[in-house]
Specification:
By secondary structure, the chain is mainly alpha-helical. 65% of the residues lie in helices and 6% in strands. The chain has one domain (3-186). A three-stranded antiparallel sheet has the order 1-2-3, with no helix packed on it. A hairpin with a 3-residue loop joins β1 (37-41) and β2. The longest helix is centred in the first third of the chain and has 30 residues, at 3-32.
Length: 187
């Protein structure tokens, strides 16, 4: 497998996802901050800027703890990048692991990183996260595109870890021990 080209695709995907998230937030600030509400599906789903932004996490928990979120997000992003790096190393070893599973895991993790970085940018630049997507029907907390990335990626990670990848693949990706196949390559 040509890892250089593959890694470039991951980086481009990450950049495109982050740019899309930031563009939607910029649009929300310029078009909805004045109080304008755009109903996509009447009484079900609307675009509605959360006045004052979200200074916390999901459902506003830990509001105002911006420094904590920045540090936590940076740590998580570093760990996720290390997972992608580890998978890249596994792909170059041509070991007995399913290549499609490994590549899929890299893209899922990239989606998770994009969501984390999208909200991290907001916290650093604004001091809060711009939220504007609102499911009115169930009065669900207002959220954004980066939140969608994180939610979808987490759901896919759970599905992959429970139903798709086998124990050998899981351990090769997430184990803190050095993989036997890496030892063999080093010798």
């Amino acid at each position: 497998m040509k890892t250089g080209l593959h890694n470039l695709k991951l980086i481009v995907s990450l950049i495109v996802l982050i740019i899309f998230d930031q563009l939607t937030k910029f649009w929300a600030v310029t078009q909805l901050k004045s109080g304008k509400v755009i109903s996509i599906i009447p009484n079900v789903f609307e675009l509605n800027y959360l006045d004052g932004g979200n200074t916390g996490a999901a459902w506003g928990i830990f509001s105002g703890k911006i420094a904590m979120f920045i540090i936590f997000t940076l740590i998580v992003v570093i760990i996720l990048i290390l997972c992608i790096y580890r998978i890249s190393k596994l792909l170059t070893l041509n070991c007995s692991l399913n290549t499609m599973h490994l590549i899929s895991m890299q893209y899922i993790i990239t989606l998770l990183i994009a969501g984390a970085i999208g909200n991290l940018i907001d916290r650093i630049v604004n001091g809060y996260v711009v939220d504007f997507l609102y499911f009115k029907l169930i009065d669900f907390p207002v959220f954004n595109v980066a939140d969608c990335y994180v939610t979808i990626a987490c759901a896919l990670l759970i599905i992959f870890c429970v139903f798709v990848i086998n124990d050998k693949e899981f351990n090769a990706i997430f184990s803190l021990k050095k993989d036997d196949s890496e030892d063999k390559k080093d010798k």
